[in-house]
Amino acid sequence: MIRVTLSVFVLASPTIKLLVEDPIVANPGQTVILVCIISGGEPSPTLTWVRNNEELPKKSINNSGTLTIPAITTEDAGVYSCVASNNVGNPAKKSTNIVVR
């Protein structure tokens, strides 16, 4: 008797949820925390944060996908996007605008 085992892997795009208001209005010196939650995705997606379409350094992002901006300044203002990608379909993306008074 010959036994054959097949494994089926279903590829799926991730979905994301951004847990912030839009826009975010902050005063200079405040700490701003942006939380991005990734759901699903096979293979496991990678998360990146971008500001005005430029990728932010990994050191400012913790393992759960939270971006912390300590002591925000007017130079930190802009559109921040959480992007989850696993090379299946289009990357999932959610954005918010940060306004610094």
Automatic annotation (TrEMBL):
Record's keyword annotation contains Oxidoreductase: no
Segment forming the signal sequence: 1-20
UniProt superkingdom: Eukaryota
Pfam families listed in its UniProt record: Ig_3
Family annotation (PROSITE patterns): IG_LIKE
InterPro entries on file: Cell_Adh-Cytoskel_Orgn, Ig-like_dom, Ig-like_dom_sf, Ig-like_fold, Ig_sub, Ig_sub2
Keywords attached to this entry: Signal
Keyword Translocase: no
Location of the Ig-like domain: 14-99
Gene3D superfamilies: Immunoglobulins
Full protein name: Ig-like domain-containing protein
